[in-house]
Amino acid sequence: MMYKVVIGLEVHCELKTKSKNFSSAPNEFTMTPNIHVSPVDLGLPGILPVVNEEACRKALKTAMALHCTNPDEIVFDRKNYFYPDLPKGYQITQVTKPMGIHGYLDILVHGERKRIFIHQLHLEEDTASLEHASTFSLIDYNRSGVPLIEIVTEPCIESAEEAVQFLEDLRDVFLFCEVSEAKSNYGQMRCDVNISLMKEGQKELGTKVEMKNINAFNAVKTAIEYEIQRQSEILDRGEKVIQETRRIDEDGKTYSMREKVDAIDYKYFIEPNIPKIPLSKEYLDAIRKEIPMLKLERFERYQEEYGLSEYDAGVLSADKKISDYFNTVIENSEDVSLALNFVTTSVLSTLNKLNITIDEFPVKATSIAELVNRVSLKKISFDHGKKILYKAIEEKKDPIDLINEQHLEQINDEEKLLTIINNVMNEHPEQVRQYVEDGNTFVYNFFVGQVMKTTNRQANPNISLQMIKEELERRKQNERK
Amino acid sequence: MDYKHSTIEQLNEAICTGKVKSEELFNEAMHLIEQYQEDYNAFVTIISKYKKYGQKDTLISGIPYALKDNISTSGILTTASSNILKDYIPVYDATIYKKLKQAGAVLVGKTTLDELAMGGTGTTAHTGIVRNPYDKQRLIGGSSAGSAAAVSLGIVPFAIGSDTGDSIRKPASFGGIVGFKPTYGRISRYGLFAFASSLDHIGCFTRNVRDAAIVTDILKGNDPNDMTTLPDEEVCYLDHLNDDIKGRKLFYIKEICEEKIYQDSDENVKKTIETFHQTVEKLKEAGFEVDEVSINKELLNAIYPTYMIISCAEATSNNANLTGIQFGPRQDGQDINEIMFRARTIGFSELIKRRFVLGSYILQKENQEKLFKNACRVRRMIVDKMNDLFKEYDGLILPASGTIAPEFTHTSKSEKLDPKATVLENHMAIANFGGFPSITLPMYYYKGLPVGINLTGRPREDKDVLNMAQKIEDVLQIKNKVAGDYDV
Q: Domain residues of chain A, as ranges?
């Protein structure tokens, strides 16, 4: 029997900040345990939290990018429970007034827009990390207190594919807004999946099963697919799905961790050590201004405004820095298709070939634009432009400097060209004679070659050819007189 | 010199003029500790080696003092008088300890408190009960019991305490000394082991108001480690002690001070109320205006339950770090819950466990609205009422307690109180609800045992409270007293 799948996600993402959410210890990934730790992160008696403004800004910014409503003031709450990775015995989080509520993120599934609704986004602190050995466990407090945002979706995701697409697009929001590096292999982005199945036409949601702390996106996919299969089989047999928390193992199967009879009572109350922080409209507006255009908008704009193919638009909007680079080139170029050609064929292929990031690419976007403009104004030839660009990349120089240094600009001035052509012809009377007396047009290319050689390839070959034809013809006529 | 009866300024002058060395004062304090420790049990830890840091030019430089043992001192055992922290040596300094070190004051020891600062008797420390310097059969009150006893005994001219309900101002009353907690946020709480964060204050014990101003001038100030601290103010409290108080308006609460309420009470309660009214008359003569103000009795009756509900709730959460995992007595167990369960079972006394269970119950989802949130609303109502009155009045005066220090036999650990005297004995929590500056100073002696008077003022107006308290001290003429000055 086919069932309707209902999935809700709770996504945790560590924010990139200099220090932790409530202490001055550094917020940096390291393999050495327990070095980024202050008394606050250890929950020692007498410690007090100090709110990290940068973390608040980034949480608010992400909430805005997800079209959430922001609160009028920042309030933190305590979530009370005992666990060895929680040194204070409570986690500082947000329940009363989350950084954002009622938002959404549009994703593309098979080319169709689907709106994933966000229930809320809140800022909290990460726990310490535990490492379990056979007879003992170790605690690493480096992660304790790292700023963490949690994004809770409404139960509106209907397939594993949608879930993964949402996670990928959500990660792009983090990356485009520059709030996190969102590396799932470092555990910077983690996800809990709530999944239930219901019969077609049924109104009530089925029994919810929760899967906790999945790092890799493909593991999310595997886990959801496995759960759909497992729950379908249970329902097909006419049995009931048990409300429980399950973990996913490396074999891609999920295993029961604990049955959830009643939800845990976290005894939330407002954190008394942090005064409420009012948020002014000016403050929020300043943050809003920092939000860049997101991936989907860029993808659509490239196709609609610049007429890019879906493929090119996809490639150029996938990475914010490449997209920003491309935007700078486009905004400063006269000819969009020429600019696109330079960026996709030369810039992107170089990044692949040298395996470098756009930050490490030696030529500035504005210089590419200048180069494109000189080609489109026919100051240099297309081939020549490309050659200059590769030389600039190789020598890590500015291409415009290279043009100036080597006088590489094309000679289009006809007066100048005529002098050069006359000199060349005077030096080669035999070839002139072959045309004048025998009408041999093969000498055209000979003279073009000579002109190019003399001018160090700067002469405009098309104009040169035309003028060479005219000059030879003129000399033929003179001979006859 | 007469170390025990000297003021901070007298000691400072003696040091500055070379009449006495700081180390000699320290040795004097050590001598007194040796003499009194067995009988009174004021200290958990005694710093036997003289060590002075910091500046030479402050008034407290070179002068011995004591810290309540719930203030974090790096490298020095800090137990909060609880078994669960009996071997805990902090790795960082509380902001106020740093300030006192920088000012050159010399720490002589960490003082006994009611376990985790919860309690008002001074009888629940893991190292035993603290006795009243005026009568060994009586308690000194708490929770800052050891700090009060140390100052009352003359061991140190000042000591630091913490005050969540009246934990400085009540023992000050029973010890015949001055106890002051300024406005919430005036002194950083960073490094104070939290009991109830929204009510916790740090303050000091001294033997006169002037010394309280001197010590508070050192302790106060904004601290980037405590977001609830107030911005710095460009004022020295000591400079304003003798400002003219003419026209200052005080009030007392009719429902607490009416003599007829106490017709059937103990003789000493009647005497306290009588003395209070005599004091009011003297204050009027001295230039204060004093009015009787009536406040809804139900609101006053709500003070104690409101205090218990909020403080137990916050305490449950604040002490959830005491699991024996990161520090403290690690226990064996089958799983992590059993390890934490066992540590907390052996680590806390029954009284503490009772309060944690209460706090947990109060915060439960199904009870939170009725208990916790209602208590927060009542707290707001009381504070609003006070702020209303502070629009007209500069301060509230009341007896700091009705009775003299009770005898040990009269106090059980059940924390039950004479219902008639509940408000009289618990009104000082008002100052914790609103973060109001509040000071207790000696009012009179009943059969040789001291009873204090309490003055509570407008938030942030610590300067004015100290100024008015100085005038009250001038009127009452009781200062620099040390237990033993009177024979019981």
A: 3-283, 314-405, 414-480
User: What is the nearest CA distance from A274 to chain B, expressed in angstroms?
Assistant: 6
DSSP state of A311: H
Q: Which CATH architecture has domain A414-480?
A: Orthogonal Bundle (1.10)
A145: left (phi over 0), alpha (psi -120 to 50) or beta: left
pLDDT band at B414 (very low <50, low <70, confident <90, very high): very low
Tens digits of residue pLDDT in A150-188: 999 999 999 999 999 999 999 999 999 999 999 888 889
DSSP alpha helices (H): ranges in A251-356?
A: 281-289, 295-304, 310-317, 320-331, 336-341, 349-354
Smallest CA–CA distance from A51 into chain B, residue? B227
Neighbouring-strand partners of residue A189: A13
pLDDT by residue (tens digit) across B116-162? 999 999 999 999 999 999 999 999 999 999 999 999 999 999 999 99
Enumerate the residues of chain B whose CB falls inside 8 A of the CB of residue A272: 196-198, 314
In this prediction, residue B487 carries a pLDDT of 47
Please tell me the predicted confidence (pLDDT) of residue B244. Answer: 97
Contact B364 A49 (CB under 8 A): no
Active-site residue, B317 included: no
Interface test with A, best of B323, B330, B374, B433 (most A CBs within 10 A): B323
Q: Please write the tens of the pLDDT for every residue from B27-71.
A: 999 999 999 999 999 999 999 899 888 878 999 999 999 999 999
The CATH class of B1-488 is: alpha beta
Query: Which of B 366-395 lie inside 8 A of A, CB atoms?
Result: 368, 372
Q: How far is A303 from chain B (nearest CA, A)?
A: 50
Please state the ipTM of this predicted complex.
0.95
pLDDT range class, residue B486, cuts 50, 70, 90: low
Helices (H), A177-290: 217-236, 281-289
From chain B residues 300-329, the ones with a CB under 8 A of any chain A CB are 313-314, 316-317, 319-323, 325-327
| Catalytic residue list contains B68 | yes
How many CB atoms sit inside 10 A of residue B266's CB?
A: 15
Q: Tell me, yes or no, if B192 comes closer than 8 A to chain A by beta carbon.
A: yes
pLDDT at residue A247, as a whole number: 85
Catalytic pick from B6, B61, B82, B143?
B143
| Alpha carbon of B39: minimum distance to chain A alpha carbons (Å) | 30
Low-confidence spans in chain A with pLDDT less than 50: none
Hey, is the C-beta of A83 within 8 angstroms of any chain B C-beta?
yes
d(CA B257, CA A388): 96
DSSP A364: -
Pairing of strands A147-153, A112-125: antiparallel
